[in-house]
């Protein structure tokens, strides 16, 4: 597969699964004004000045330690003349986008942490850029937006995406952990979503292209490779201040700065202090709580003071570190196991241990979307036990429950690994058959019917049952028919099997 074909496949996958947010209206105005040959600087000034809050923040950042200008800036016009149109544009875009993409009502995602980390990355990118001597007015906003794909994926796939974020956070892995899980789950990752989003917003290539490779800068086209490397270093610095495994990441950063800029440990510490001091100032302007962020030298001094008070020997320190690491690893494993159990409980039927109604509804929707995306075949079977009430009345409900358990086990052993068995409710079950045509479904349904007829041995009783089955086939000619219509058709086919004598299979065609 060529690079162009790969990009096209990823684009189709993202478009099929993700609703990309539109840029804020004022951001569109700013971009159009900057890109238009007919617009003047006064047009940009007018757009920004129309929003008093934005104007105030622009002047705050222009007068902050971030730019360390010799004289106070009193107007947007003055700021443009000193910082340049491009810098002003990017500062304005940064405020507008971060303000628009924050939703405190959603409690399952820490928006403040996400943007605090992003702002730290943006400041870090600006500091690292100055080391390279590269002129890149876009690097701040590029770094700010580089992980926007994480936010977009959460907003689109919250229930599916949250376990991925949790797994990587508890296992203390870096971005490669999340990217691997995303590729396995969705066939694309947050880096690719960020890239597609910035392209769809028609941001300059100097912004959109480095975001495509910020985690793997070696893959970037030569024109954008240095910018991508700056973003990668900035992300590492941000992880030191906003993540775990600080010591390990610090050593990694030191090695990279030594290799690229011949920086020693003191120079690295000074760079980290510079990032922290500037980030704390910028976070206040973005109305974000800096949390416990403090300059690296202060963190180091506090740690040394604490060790001094403890008065521990070297051997005691090694032992304490080993115990702490083991405890942390054990806690992470226990948390992952607990999350897996909770997820299993949420999607499994408590009696039969097959998938439950909730999971069936979610996965069936995805299988329909997959069939449409790849022009595949899909079948749905619904079946239930004939005269089940009579079994409960004759042998008692505990025996009826055992019949349900044994039937579910028997059917589970009869289906393919790709098929999905779920308890729909009561004595009714469903089987989703991906990549199965109408003829194959008929053969499969008959096999299930015969499979259920073998007697069940329950508490000394040999109990015979039969099942009635209904099925529906979803093919290329059925595109556009919704999930509920498919379920209703299969249910109607099941009803006809009951009406026509039970212990039989009925397949109905889909009708518009």
TrEMBL record:
Where does the signal peptide begin and end? none
The EC category is transferase
**Pfam families tied to this protein:** GGDEF, HDOD
Q: Give every GGDEF domain span.
A: 376-510
Record domain HDOD: where: 20-217
* Enzyme Commission number(s) of this protein: 2.7.7.65
Name the PROSITE patterns for this protein: GGDEF, HDOD
* Entry keywords, A to Z: Coiled coil
Q: Which residues form a coiled coil?
A: 300-348
The entry lists its GO molecular-function terms as: diguanylate cyclase activity
The entry's protein name is diguanylate cyclase
Organism (species): Desulfomarina profundi
